[in-house]
TrEMBL record:
<feature type="domain" description="ABC transporter">
    <location>
        <begin position="14"/>
        <end position="258"/>
    </location>
</feature>
<dbReference type="InterPro" id="IPR003439">
    <property type="entry name" value="ABC_transporter-like_ATP-bd"/>
</dbReference>
<dbReference type="GO" id="GO:0016887">
    <property type="term" value="F:ATP hydrolysis activity"/>
</dbReference>
<dbReference type="GO" id="GO:0005886">
    <property type="term" value="C:plasma membrane"/>
</dbReference>
<keyword id="KW-0472">Membrane</keyword>
<dbReference type="InterPro" id="IPR003593">
    <property type="entry name" value="AAA+_ATPase"/>
</dbReference>
<dbReference type="Pfam" id="PF00005">
    <property type="entry name" value="ABC_tran"/>
</dbReference>
<keyword id="KW-0067">ATP-binding</keyword>
<protein>
    <submittedName>
        <fullName>ABC transporter related protein</fullName>
    </submittedName>
</protein>
<dbReference type="GO" id="GO:0005524">
    <property type="term" value="F:ATP binding"/>
</dbReference>
<dbReference type="InterPro" id="IPR027417">
    <property type="entry name" value="P-loop_NTPase"/>
</dbReference>
<dbReference type="InterPro" id="IPR050086">
    <property type="entry name" value="MetN_ABC_transporter-like"/>
</dbReference>
<keyword id="KW-1003">Cell membrane</keyword>
<keyword id="KW-0547">Nucleotide-binding</keyword>
<dbReference type="InterPro" id="IPR017871">
    <property type="entry name" value="ABC_transporter-like_CS"/>
</dbReference>
<dbReference type="GO" id="GO:0015424">
    <property type="term" value="F:ABC-type amino acid transporter activity"/>
</dbReference>
<dbReference type="InterPro" id="IPR030679">
    <property type="entry name" value="ABC_ATPase_HisP-typ"/>
</dbReference>
Length: 262
């Protein structure tokens, strides 16, 4: 192995190795392999039902793969390798690993009975990463960074969808994850609220955090993604920089998809 190859491999923050997943007869992931280098942004595009959410959920072991595995910074998630075999880790170890990966959902998934501040401090306090006082200080700084310093004492139902999603991003950041996964973070938002959320994600994109973003916002993907991945029927049809996959797609399926969403 050359030094360059070695460096590239060591730098992959998210690696997916030959992921297969079926629900009954539905082969939802049919051999997906992907590597996202540390600090880079990957955008996953693809039609509804192509397996995007399943792939994202598999990255932090919310979904268990039938075959293959995921590694974060070279460390398999949820499993340990025994030669060719994979052995499931105890639930406690999976939870500890998952705490290093942020996840932002389409429908925000905030805790409705907690204030904005408590939503952001809950995980750092529960995982004892921070004392309550430190967690509050960090949460206030994160809320300010997403433009919501004045909403700390509000409840989620008192906020717009765009504001709720920015709280969800602050909450994900509170665990200082090296990797953040976004599953269609703007598709539940009214069009006029999309820009504020994309602006926050764009800031993160330049912060050194590795991002994997499932999105239908092709213009956004072109602007922020280092790597664009087009998924169709559980397979990666093509992947590469936006200048190739978005601007000069090689595969007819990618062209057909882009002609519908652009
Ligand atoms: P996407 O996010 O690209 O729209 P998904 O990963 O959500 O696609 O789903 C891919 C396929 O897997 C769909 O056919 C969906 O119905 C199916 N699927 C997803 N989750 C489950 C589940 N928990 N049980 C059964 N089928 C599922
Ligand atoms: Mg989905």
């Amino acid at each position: 192995m050359t030094t360059a190859q070695h460096t590239a491999e060591a730098a992959a923050a998210v690696e997916i190795h030959n992921a297969h997943k079926s629900y009954g007869v539905n082969h939802v992931l049919a051999g997906v392999s992907l590597a996202v280098p540390a600090g880079q942004v990957a955008a996953i595009l693809g039609p509804s039902g192509s397996g995007k959410s399943t792939l994202l959920r598999a990255i932090n072991h919310l979904e268990k793969l039938d075959v293959g595995y995921v590694a974060i910074n070279g460390e398999p998630v949820g499993v340990r390798r025994h030669g060719d075999r994979l052995k499931e880790l105890p639930e406690q170890a999976i939870l500890a690993q998952r705490a290093r990966i942020g996840f932002v959902f389409q429908n925000f998934n905030l805790f409705p009975h907690l204030t904005v501040l408590d939503n952001v401090t809950a995980a750092p306090v529960a995982t004892r990463q921070h004392s309550r006082a430190d967690a509050v200080e960090l949460a206030r700084a994160l809320l300010a960074s997403v433009g919501l310093a004045d909403k700390a004492d509000a409840y989620p139902r008192q906020l717009s969808g765009g504001q709720q999603q920015r709280v969800a991003i602050a909450r994900a950041l509170a665990l200082r994850p090296g990797v953040i996964l976004f599953d269609e973070p703007t598709s539940a938002l009214d069009p006029e609220l999309v820009g504020d959320v994309l602006a926050v994600i764009k800031d993160l994109a330049t912060s050194g955090t590795t991002l994997v973003i499932v999105t239908h916002e092709v213009g956004f993907a072109r602007e922020v993604a280092d790597l664009v991945v087009f998924l169709d029927a559980g397979r990666i049809v093509e992947q590469g920089p936006p200048s190739e996959v978005i601007d000069n797609p090689r595969h007819p399926r990618t062209r057909e998809f882009l002609s519908k969403v652009l």
